[in-house]
Design a protein that fits this description.
The complex is a heterodimer.
Chain A: E1 5-7, E2 10-13, E3 19-24, E4 31-37, E5 44-50, E6 53-57, E7 65-68, E8 75-79, E9 88-95, E10 105-106, E11 110-114
Parallel strand pairs in A: 2-11
Antiparallel strand pairs in A: 1-3, 3-8, 4-5, 4-9, 5-6, 7-8, 9-10, 9-11
Chain B: E1 2-6, E2 10-14, E3 19-21, E4 23-27, E5 31-38, E6 44-50, E7 56-58, E8 64-68, E9 73-78, E10 87-95, E11 104-105, E12 109-114
Parallel strand pairs in B: 2-12
Antiparallel strand pairs in B: 1-4, 3-9, 5-6, 5-10, 7-8, 8-9, 10-11, 10-12
The chains are: A mainly beta, B mainly beta.
């Protein structure tokens, strides 16, 4: 068990550029979640996959954001036409959906800075 | 709807003294409650969880929390603080049944441990 991994760990981009982040969940976990954490705040839910199906999306996930999990394993989160307000830590988590404990395991996050 | 309120944004204790981090929750459903810890440059780590079993929950590193339905509270305690406990702590709520699995985080409590 190598845990949840995220790449890159840091990304600096200019306003208006597109960025893509990758999350590799724990291998046997069928559920995958994306959260966003801004400075001084707790993480906020963005979206959730069960296998390859995207089952929930937060109102925070504007049209510029898209997430995929094409084969039910790794996931990507793309932000198009980045804005300075997108600067945040993007966290990925995974869980084993068959248990009742709802325990989510988090990756180290990708810190995005939009200049 | 569900939410958590962490009553203190910062708590400072001396090493060897007790720790109390306060959390109140609001939930329209039977809740599951968690405490997560976030050390700098590290992923969120689960400390403990309540999922409608015993109301006194023991977690890792000597932490405990007690679910009090009448007070809608889930305070985190530790008898004796250690320097390594310095971190940010998040109280988290989710529904304990149904399809929704998103976690709702509080805004966090920064714990400082003084030598």
């Amino acid at each position: 068990d190598t845990g949840v991994s995220q790449n890159p760990r840091h990304k600096i981009t200019k306003r208006g550029q597109n960025v893509t982040f990758r999350c590799d969940p724990i291998s046997e976990h069928n559920r995958l979640y994306w959260y966003r954490q801004t400075l001084g705040q707790g993480p906020e839910f963005l979206t959730y996959f069960q296998n390859e199906a995207q089952l929930e999306k937060s109102r925070l996930l504007s049209d510029r954001f898209s997430a995929e999990r094409p084969k039910g394993s790794f996931s990507t989160l793309e932000i198009q036409r980045t804005e300075q307000g997108d600067s945040a830590m993007y966290l990925c988590a995974s869980s084993l959906g068959q248990t009742s404990s709802y325990e989510q395991y988090f990756g180290p996050g990708t810190r995005l800075t939009v200049t | 709807a569900q939410s958590v309120t962490q009553l203190d944004s910062h708590v400072s204790v001396s090493e060897g003294t007790p720790v109390l981090l306060r959390c109140n929750y609001s939930s329209s459903y039977s809740p599951s409650l968690f405490w997560y810890v976030q050390h700098p440059n590290k992923g969120l780590q689960l400390l403990l969880k309540y999922t409608s079993a015993a109301t006194l929950v023991k977690g890792i590193n000597g932490f405990e929390a007690e679910f009090k339905k009448s007070e809608t509270s889930f305070h985190l305690t530790k008898p004796s603080a250690h320097m390594s406990d310095a971190a940010e702590y998040f109280c988290v709520v989710t529904r304990s049944s149904g399809s929704a699995r998103q976690l709702t985080f509080g805004s966090g409590t920064q714990l400082t441990v003084l030598p």
